[in-house]
Amino acid sequence: MKYFGFLIVFIISLVLAVGLSVNLGQVPPLGYLMDPYHGFWQNAYSEDDFAQETLALEGLQAPVTVVYDDHLIPHVFAGNKADLMMAQGYVTAKHRLWQMEFQTRAAGGRIAEIVGSAALDFDRMQRRKGLGYGAKMGLQFLEENEPATLELISAYTQGVNQYIDQLDLSRMPVEYKILDYRPEQWTPYKTVLLLKYMADMLVGDRDIEFTNLRHVLGESMVNRLFPDIPSGNDPVIEADHVWDFDPLPVHRPDSVVYPDFSLLIDPVPAPAPGTGSNNWAVAGEKTKNGHPILANDPHLGLNLPSLWYAMQLSIPEYTVKGATLPGALGVISGFNEQVAWGVTNATRDVRDWYAITFKDHNRLEYRYNDQWIQSSVRVEEIPVKGEVAYLDTVIYTHYGPVVYDENFHPNDQKMNFALKWTAHEGSNEQQTFLDLNAARNHGDYLAALDHYTAPAQNFVFASSKGDIAMKVQGKFPLKWPEQGKYLMDGNNPVFEWNGYIPYGQNPSTLNPDRGFVSSANQYSVGESYPYYIFDNSFEDYRNRRINNRLREMEDITLEDMEALQFDDLDLHAAEALPVMLEKLKQDTTRKFDAQEQALLGVLEKWDYHADPDVKGPVAFELWWDAFKESVWKWLDQGERPIVYPDNFMTTSLMRDAPNDSIFDNPATTGQTETVVHHLQTSFDQASRAYQDLKATHGEDLVWAKYKNTTIQHLVANFSAFSREGIFTGGGRSIVNATSERHGASWRMLVELGPETRARGIYPGGQSGNPGSRFYDNFIETWAEGNYIDFGLRTPQDVENVLFTTTLKPTD
């Protein structure tokens, strides 16, 4: 009854939210929602309330046992891989069907079909980026080259669809009822599309912003403020690593002429600040028990239902456990009896933009190498709820789709911009994870990665044999220095990619002398690596904190790794704040009033740990944000998008070059600004902001309250299905990278000894049903930095069995 009342409150809030966010023609029929036999009332249940002992699935070769533990984590025991995949599809759909379908709708640009014209611009962007095209190329690649993978995807698909076919209307996920639509059949295309969606979530480029900065600053100043290799780099692969291959030749053209104009277009959204990840593995020589320990915590948007779904999958050949991605096969980050692996984003520039000149308004030919060559036309028919379908004509060049043109975000610029992206190419990322699930050693791990194209990832590895390894994996274009940093001329062949770096020459390491491997989205390699690497968003703080701690630590235990995953030292603040305070006080004639003294007191007493119940991080963030804005606002170009230099560069200039001309705002006359000027004016601003916040929130304005970590439903205005005000610490550049809307979407620790020991947690719950007690029951555990035991289980030793279901072949 508790959850029954809970859901009533949810639905009342939700109906109000829908009514306030869309026009009346799109509000679902309230009579249907209130139907006592089929409406939302029927979603007020937890899964164990309706546990079924036996279910028949067509196509199974033998019975499959599914044992749910007391966290609703299924342990699936099958006799062969095809049955295992069918059972995984069925079980995942049973608990996450709406999420699976909604995410693939978003990937394919099909949201307007269920919510109306408000989502039309989003749908057009998704389609113009070519996600659906890339998925079709991926499916074609499987059909022609990897039929065994496709057979397993088809088995998974069959499992999903059998759940849909026997789904009773009363048990339909509540989101379908609110938005007034029905689930449709799953297809192998959707699984491929989901993996392309992950590539989209984790890739970014700043070609448009850098083009504008180059126009304003000149190339040499852009290179100074945005160096290709960060100073003080502590790379993913140890800096002194020796490369044992002969690199392919890549020659920079003698003359490179970029299109020289500033751009008004709105760039394709990059990953939100805070999107990142940590992973590492320590060798047995550094652990208390003498066994390798692997850790992984991907940082993504904090959503409900959770991005991840925990499962154990077992056949006679192997047992694997970890985080699955609803809609994809196997375990994505996890372990089996012999090996463990995890992933972080490798932040590589694999998406480039080209300015296209068409022959005429028909756009059937475009200029390349001073000749007119033929384009192709793809008409995207976008269904719109309550309206006629929208037809969007997208032109494809040999580079890729023309995303921006006179019909889409032209912003008065008669320019055309084509996107070249590795995700448009045929590939088989699914096989990578299927092979990792069954891997037994380092060789199997490397062979599995040979299938992997996008998104670029740092794959960490450890084995019970004692090996630890890291590989930066993806399909990386061969580029000459600075190629792809700016918008390129689509007519000029010198801007073409020069092929790809061979997979065997991607950065990797095995059992380094330092006794650990780690990655946290930093630059991949030392300066000796022979290929050009660039991205706009390499991380500068989490990686150094992790590496410094791992160098110091000995006799490491799982508990030590728990503490490191939850570490909340703000290294950026520790390096920047003492300099800020010292320079602020250089003017000895300045007198601080009582409010400013109070802010100074908070800052001076802070120990740089972003604990949830302290005020220091609030004060520092207010001051730092105001300071950074003060320093760089002169770069703003109105509606033309740009990017500011990052915190590491800003801190370095503040510390090492306080009187540099870079701090002088050219828009002001009669004065020359220095760092001290910006620190003083920004401190005044921060002091006022701090007082305003205290007036609103009271004296107990602590970091968790200010930060307001929110785990949001996938439909943002379904706030009744979200959780706000999570009491937890951390922050964007901190190992515990929990910010307002992003953080550790999955934390996993694995010790690979004679008996594998594992712990895991994520900020949500196993159920996709907001009325279930398993919808968000992990959140408090996650917020406090705790874990659940995540060891491998046999059918007989699953602890605290919730219920067991047997899936049997049809007669």
TrEMBL record:
Q: Which keywords does UniProt give here? A: Hydrolase, Zymogen
Q: State the Gene3D superfamilies in the record.
A: 1.10.1400.10, 2.30.120.10, Glutamine Phosphoribosylpyrophosphate, subunit 1, domain 1, Penicillin Amidohydrolase, domain 1
Quote any Pfam family the record assigns.
Answer: Penicil_amidase
* InterPro entries hit by this protein: Ntn_hydrolases_N (IPR029055), Pen/GL7ACA/AHL_acylase (IPR014395), Penicillin_amidase_A-knob (IPR043147), Penicillin_amidase_dom1 (IPR023343), Penicillin_amidase_N_B-knob (IPR043146), S45 (IPR002692)
Its domain of life reads Bacteria
Transmembrane region(s): none
Checking PANTHER family in the record gives: ACYL-HOMOSERINE LACTONE ACYLASE QUIP (PTHR34218:SF4), PEPTIDASE S45 PENICILLIN AMIDASE (PTHR34218)
The family line of this record is: Belongs to the peptidase S45 family.
Q: Could you identify this protein by its name?
A: Beta-lactam antibiotic acylase
